[in-house]
Amino acid sequence: MYFFKRLFQIDVKRMFTTIKKIARRSHKPFLFIFLDVINCAFRYGAGYMDYFVFNFEELSAKQRETYITRTVNNNYFLKMNDRSYYHIFNDKTEFLEIYKEFIRRDHIDLRTCSEEDYEAFVKKHPVFMGKPVDGQCGYGIEIVDTHGRDLKEVKAELERKTQYLLEEKIVQNEELSRLYPCSINTIRVVTCYKNGECSILFTALRIGNNGKHVDNFNNGGMFSVIDEDGVIRKPAIDKEGVEYEIHPYTGTPIIGFKIPMFKEIIEQCKKMAAITPQVGLTGWDMCVTDKGIDVVEGNQLPGYDIYQSRCHLNKDRMGLKPRFDAAIYKD
Question: CATH number of 106-168: 3.40.50.10860, 3.30.1490.20, 3.30.450.40, 3.40.50.720?
C-alpha cells in the first residue's frame, strides 16, 4: 500500500535524472538501473534517492537487506514515536521550554513578548539569530545585525519573514570554530529510548561549508561519523558524494578531529531522551560552547540519509539496520 501511495507522489523527471547519474557513474545501462530501482523499491522499500545515496548498484542482495531505507525508517517512527507529541519538536519555542534546563542561550518569542522585552533582548544581543518557529533543514534562519538600525523596522521585517524566534547567537568552542567558523558545527546524536533505557544508535559531526551559516546536509553542509571515543576517523561527505579529508574552507584536517566534551554530550542526550519517552527515536543536534554544552534542536523524524554513506561503512559495506532493529524491536 505504501509503495503505491509513493508511486503517485514521485517526481518522474527528477527520478529519471537521478537514474541517468547512477548509470553514468556505474557504467551500466539506463534500463538495467531503472529496473533495479523498481526491484529495490519492492524488495527493500528503497526510494530512487536511497538507491543513489547508498550506491545500491554496487551492493549484493545480502548487503542491501541491511540498509535503513525510506520504508524501513518510516516503520521505525511508527513503532517508536507518538505523533501526538510531535508538536514539542515542530514548534521551536515549545522545545526550548520543555528542555529549558539544557538550554544555555537567551531567546524570546516575538508573538508573545512585550515591546520592552524585545528591546531589552536586542540591546543585550545586537547580533542574534532570527528563526521561523517551525523551520526545518536550516531554511529561513538568518543572522540579524541591528547596529545602526531602527529596532521597530527590524521587528517588522522579522514578523514579515515569520522569524518569530529570536535567539542569542551561539559562539561555538574554539576547536569547532577552527574546523569551520561560519556556522555552528553540530553533533547529531540519535537516541532510542525504550523500556526505561536509552541506546545511542548513531553519532556524527555536521559541518558547514561555502560560507553558509548552517551546517545542514541538505543545505550545502557535510558530515562525518564519530567513533565511540569522540574521534573522527573517516572523511566527511556532502550531498553530492564529494569526500573531504581536509575542510576546503579552512584547511583544517577532518580526519583525526576530536569532538570536545563528547562523553558529556552523550550523557546529556540520554537525559533529554528520558523527558519525552513518547518520542523514543530522536535526533539531537548538540553544540559545544565556552559555556558548556547547548542543545540546538531535537528532531522527531531524524533524517536517515546520513546513516550509511559508503565512505563511513566497514569494508563489508553492511548497513545499520541490524543495529537499529536490535534496539527498536527488542522486547
Answer: 3.30.1490.20
Q: Are 164 and 111 in contact (CB under 8 A)?
A: yes
Chain centre to alpha carbon of residue 92: 15
C-alpha angle with apex 196: 324 to 331, nearest 5 degrees?
A: 55
Q: What is the dihedral of CA 59, 65, 66, 69, to 10 degrees?
A: 90
| CA 292 to chain CA mean position, Å | 21
- Cα 281 to Cα 104, 194, 328, distances in angstroms: 24, 9, 8
- pLDDT tens for residues 148-193? 999 999 999 999 999 999 999 999 999 999 999 999 999 999 999 9
The mean pLDDT of the chain is: 93
The amino acid at residue 84 is S
List the alpha helices (DSSP H) in 27-112.
30-44, 48-53, 61-64, 70-80, 87-90, 92-98
* Cβ-based burial of 129 (10 A; exposed 0-12, middle 13-18, buried ≥19): buried
- Distance (Å, whole) CA 210 – CA 2: 38
CA-CA distance, 279 to 299, in Å (whole number)? 10
pLDDT band at 135 (very low <50, low <70, confident <90, very high): low
Which spans in 84-207 are helix H? 87-90, 92-98, 115-124, 151-160, 174-179
115-124 and 151-160 helices, crossing angle to 10°: 100
- Kindly report the CATH class assigned to 82-95+172-328: alpha beta
User: Would you list the domain boundaries of the chain?
Assistant: 2-65, 82-95+172-328, 106-168
